From TrEMBL:
It holds the Pfam family Glyco_hydro_10. The keyword Signal applies. The lineage of its organism: Bacteria, Pseudomonadati, Pseudomonadota, Alphaproteobacteria, Hyphomonadales. One of its GO terms (molecular function) is endo-1,4-beta-xylanase activity. The keyword Signal applies. GO terms for biological process: xylan catabolic process. InterPro entries: GH, GH10, GH10_dom. This is Beta-xylanase. Belongs to the glycosyl hydrolase 10 (cellulase F) family.
Length: 332
C-alpha cells in the first residue's frame, strides 16, 4: 500500500520515526525510513548526554550526520530534547553542578540550549523543549541541580531561550504518557503544570504524548483508563494546546510469547489508540519510536523475562511489515 506518510498527510498529519546515527549504516533501515516517513527525530543525538558528555566536550558529529541524511533526502526533522529534566538521563557532571544563583543557572542553560538550537535552526521545525519534568508517580515537578536555584522558572527559561533562537519552531513539552499506564497523579500533575506555564505566558505550542504503551487484554480496567485519558486530552486541547504522538511503541511484556497472538493484540491495540487520537483535530503529528523490532530500545531497556524478542514496532526484525503497520494505515 501507500507509505504511512502519504496516508497520514491526507489527514493533515506528519508521520515519522526515531532514527539513530548508527541506523544510517543500515541500508534496509534507511530504505524503510525513506519509504514510510516524512519526518524523523534523533533517538539520542540531540540529548545533552550525547552533545555534552563532559564539561569540555561538544559532540555534534552524530546529530550532524542525521541532519545531513534528512536534508539530502527531503525528510523534515523534529528535535528531541533541549532539557531532559530528570537526573536519571542527565549527564553526571551536570547533576553534580552546584550553582550559586538563579541567574548563574540561567546563563548556563541558555548557553547549552542556544548552542544546540542555533546549529540546527531553521531545519528543525519543532523542539521537545522540555522532557519529563513531572514525576510520573507523584505528579510533582522534579528537582535537579538545574532547578535548585530556579525552581520551575527553569522551564520557562528553556522555552524562552528556544523561542528566541528558533522563533518559527513549534515548541513542545513532552512526557512519558500513554492511555493505559499513566497514573491519575501524573495526569493531574501535567495538567496543572501546563496551566502554570500558560498563565506565565510561556511560549508553548503543545504537549507531546510519548505513548510508550504497555498492553493488556481489553477489559473494564482499560476502558476506565480510556475515559480518563480522553478527559485528560480534552483538558489539554481546551487550553489551546496542540497534541503530538511522539514516541509510539508497544511493550508486549505482559503478553504470552506466541507471535500471531501478540501481533494480533498489538495491532488491535494500535488501531484503538489511533482511532481515539485521530478524533482530535489538534493532533498534528505521529512519530513511532523506531521502525524495526530488534532495534527498538525496549529489547535492552525492558527485556521480557522469558528472553523472547519483543515486537514493539511496525516492521519485524527481517524488515517485513507487520499487522501493526496495517493497523496504523487503516487508522489513517
Ligand atoms: C531512549 C532511547 O531510545 C535509548 O536508546 C536511550 O538509551 C534512552 O532513551 N522517552 C524519551 C526518549 O523521551 O528519549 C527515550 O529514548 C525513551 C523514553
Amino acid at each position: 500500500g501507500p507509505p504511512l506518510r502519504t496516508l497520514a498527510s491526507e489527514k493533515g498529519l506528519r508521520f515519522g520515526s526515531a532514527m539513530s546515527s548508527g541506523q544510517l549504516d543500515d541500508a534496509k533501515y534507511r530504505e524503510i525510513m525513506l519509504f514510510e516517513c516524512g519526518t524523523m527525530v534523533a533517538e539520542n543525538e540531540h540529548k545533552w548526554y550525547t552533545i555534552f558528555p563532559d564539561p569540555d566536550t561538544v559532540n555534534f558529529a552524530p546529530a550532524d550526520r542525521l541532519a545531513t541524511f534528512a536534508g539530502e533526502n527531503g525528510l523534515t526533522m523534529r528535535g528531541h530534547t533541549l532539557l531532559w529534566h530528570r537526573e536519571m538521563w542527565s549527564p553526571e557532571w551536570v547533576n553534580a553542578l552546584e550553582f550559586s544563583s538563579a541567574s548563574e543557572t540561567a546563563d548556563f542553560v541558555e548557553q547549552k540550549i542556544s548552542l544546540i538550537v542555533d546549529r540546527y535552526a531553521p531545519a528543525i521545525y519543532a523542539w521537545d523543549v522540555v522532557n519529563e519534568a513531572i514525576d510520573d508517580e507523584t505528579g510533582e515537578f522534579r528537582q535537579t541541580s538545574l532547578s535548585a536555584k530556579m525552581g520551575e522558572q527553569l522551564i520557562d527559561h528553556a522555552f524562552h531561550v528556544a523561542k528566541a533562537h528558533a522563533p518559527d519552531a513549534t515548541l513542545t513539552y513532552n512526557d512519558f504518557m500513554s492511555w493505559e499506564s499513566t497514573s491519575a497523579a501524573h495526569r493531574t500533575g501535567v495538567l496543572r503544570f501546563l496551566e502554570r506555564l500558560k498563565a506565565r505566558g510561556v511560549p508553548i505550542d503543545g504537549l507531546g504524548l510519548q505513548s510508550h504503551s504497555n498492553y493488556e487484554m481489553p477489559n473494564e480496567f482499560t476502558r476506565a483508563r480510556q475515559r480518563d485519558w480522553v478527559a485528560f486530552c480534552d483538558e489539554v486541547v481546551g487550553m489551546g494546546l496542540d497534541i503530538y504522538i511522539t514516541e509510539f511503541d508497544v511493550n508486549d511484556t505482559r503478553l504470552k510469547p506466541d507471535i500471531a497472538y501478540r501481533d494480533a493484540l498489538i495491532a488491535s491495540y494500535t488501531r484503538d489508540y489511533f482511532d481515539l487520537m485521530l478524533a482530535y483535530p489538534q493532533l498534528k503529528e505521529v512519530l513511532v519510536w523506531g521502525m524495526v523490532d530488534d532495534q527498538n530500545w525496549l529489547q535492552t531497556f525492558l527485556p521480557r523475562t522469558d528472553d523472547v524478542e519483543k515486537r514493539p514496532t511496525v516492521y519485524d526484525s527481517d524488515y517485513k511489515a507487520k499487522s501493526m503497520r496495517r493497523a496504523l494505515a487503516d487508522a489513517f
